[in-house]
Amino acid sequence: MLPSSRPQKCCCRLESPQRNVEVAATMLRPALACCKLYISEARNAPALRAIERAAAALRPAAVLVNAFADDAYNRVGYTLVSPLAAGGGDPAAPPPLHRAAFGMVAAALEAVDLGAHAGAHPRLGVVDHIAFHPLAGAHLDDVAALTRAVAADIGDKLQVPTYLYGAAHREGRTLATIRRQLGYFTPTSPGEQWRGAPDASSLPVPPDAGPTTPSRSKGVVAIGATAWVDNYNVPVHTADVAAAKRIARAVSERGGGLRSVQAMGLAHGEGVAEVACNLLDPATVGAEQVQEKVRQLAAEQGLAVGEGYFTDFSQEKIVELYMQSAEVEASQQ
């Protein structure tokens, strides 16, 4: 069974010790990178098993260290870790992280139909978002090159319009920018839901790879390379999504709030909304500050909040999980 970063486990990261950082750095040999894939499906167990089998095919070279499924959003986030170097075998073959990510995308496109999807989280496609991050010993430029290669394969071989962002894009376009251009943040169904496939007749911005017209069953993919980003969500005890949106706007840098924080207000089950945040510089503005800011803003509207949670492990924990897996594999050889 995969490690799970369910809320009750992730929240302990707020006071995590630094010892694991030192241990992992000491043990680490190769430069590592991680790939986070966000799939627009969390309720179809056979589809998720097919996607996870595709990742397992590259083990131990690439290791799936986390899966975080959210039923209300109908969305799952996967975290892959692998050395950047190709390692053994065919030196001309793409690195394991490239092959594992591509395999998971191909499996998702085969198993999931965007036209049948519904959930409370925005999405652009079956594979909504792919983020590559350098871990210990890796450089962003190297990860960006890997990202561009994966994007080209997804666009050309799988025939999905693919948009680059971050260091992988020639002008450093942000993920938020391309999402706004493609209408990501506008619900397509009553009740603050996203349902069915978006309009496939045209794209307002030409993709960086793949066809210029998306398939209704696949949608499009945004894929980029950046420094580490934390995803931290804070429940707000209200059915009023508009109130959560006001809080999200005020907490975000774009709305005059916390620097390097992006936020959305979303429905998240019966009688609960959520402020879903991207922390673009978590070493400077972390979860504690976000939690307190959301609490203050909610209190001004007479609302209470719950304890926030991360949707993935920390960088240090991800490296630790990978190293543990590598040690187990080595001991079995």
From TrEMBL:
<dbReference type="InterPro" id="IPR037064">
    <property type="entry name" value="Formiminotransferase_N_sf"/>
</dbReference>
<feature type="region of interest" description="Disordered">
    <location>
        <begin position="186"/>
        <end position="217"/>
    </location>
</feature>
<dbReference type="Pfam" id="PF02971">
    <property type="entry name" value="FTCD"/>
</dbReference>
<feature type="domain" description="Formiminotransferase C-terminal subdomain">
    <location>
        <begin position="232"/>
        <end position="322"/>
    </location>
</feature>
<dbReference type="InterPro" id="IPR012886">
    <property type="entry name" value="Formiminotransferase_N"/>
</dbReference>
<dbReference type="Pfam" id="PF07837">
    <property type="entry name" value="FTCD_N"/>
</dbReference>
<keyword id="KW-0808">Transferase</keyword>
<dbReference type="InterPro" id="IPR051623">
    <property type="entry name" value="FTCD"/>
</dbReference>
<feature type="domain" description="Formiminotransferase N-terminal subdomain">
    <location>
        <begin position="31"/>
        <end position="227"/>
    </location>
</feature>
<dbReference type="InterPro" id="IPR013802">
    <property type="entry name" value="Formiminotransferase_C"/>
</dbReference>
<protein>
    <recommendedName>
        <fullName>glutamate formimidoyltransferase</fullName>
        <ecNumber>2.1.2.5</ecNumber>
    </recommendedName>
</protein>
<dbReference type="InterPro" id="IPR037070">
    <property type="entry name" value="Formiminotransferase_C_sf"/>
</dbReference>
<dbReference type="GO" id="GO:0030409">
    <property type="term" value="F:glutamate formimidoyltransferase activity"/>
</dbReference>
<dbReference type="InterPro" id="IPR022384">
    <property type="entry name" value="FormiminoTrfase_cat_dom_sf"/>
</dbReference>
